[in-house]
Design goal:
Blueprint lengths: L4 E4 L2 H12 L12 H9 L2 H12 L4 E6 L7 H12 L3 E6 L22 E2 L2 E2 L6 E2 L6 H25 L2
Parallel strand pairs: 1-2, 2-3, 3-6
Antiparallel strand pairs: 4-5
Helix pairs in contact: 3-4
């Protein structure tokens, strides 16, 4: 049975790349929000964004942070990570910078978004796994993610259960 997951990512920079991962089918998640819907939510302010995130985190087992070049510095990605952990849900990261965007371009590797977050005095990056597909071509990166994502989610759930 496919796990239900929440996807955390930098909407403006990585939407195209993230949709490739979200469409793999080995896991299930929310219906993707369109650019227009996201802009409407953002215009409604911080409380509306938090409400949207919290609603979409409900009934999920895991949050997958899809890591592009600029993901780590995003305010709402940090919120989603912190909220996921507070709710007792699993976390993992997948680097997506080598997937092609809508222009056919790959991106630079971004910073680990768990690096600047702490559980007590321990960096979350020492607990949360981040997967970086070992291939250079977008097609092989996609294939690698597709072949492994279900196992990664299960491993993340096992890790989170250790901290419950």
């Amino acid at each position: 049975m496919a796990r239900r997951v929440f996807h955390s990512f930098h909407f403006d920079k990585d939407f195209w790349r993230t949709q490739q991962v979200r469409n793999i089918g080995a896991i299930t998640g929310d219906t993707p929000v369109s650019s227009n819907q996201w802009e409407e939510i953002k215009r409604s302010g911080s409380s509306a964004i938090k409400e949207w995130i919290n609603k979409h985190l409900a009934n999920k087992s895991c949050t997958i942070v899809l890591i592009g070049r600029y993901t780590a510095g995003r305010q709402w990605v940090k919120y989603e990570i912190k909220r996921t952990w507070a709710l007792g849900k699993a976390l993992l990261g997948i680097r997506i910078h080598k997937l092609r965007d809508n222009n056919g371009d790959q991106s630079g590797r971004g910073k680990n978004p768990f690096e600047d977050l702490y559980l007590g005095e321990r960096k979350l990056s020492s607990i949360i796994p981040v997967y970086d597909p070992p291939y250079q071509t977008s097609k092989r990166v996609y294939q690698y993610i597709s072949e492994n994502i279900s196992d990664w989610v299960e491993e993340a759930i096992d890790i989170r259960n250790e901290y419950s």
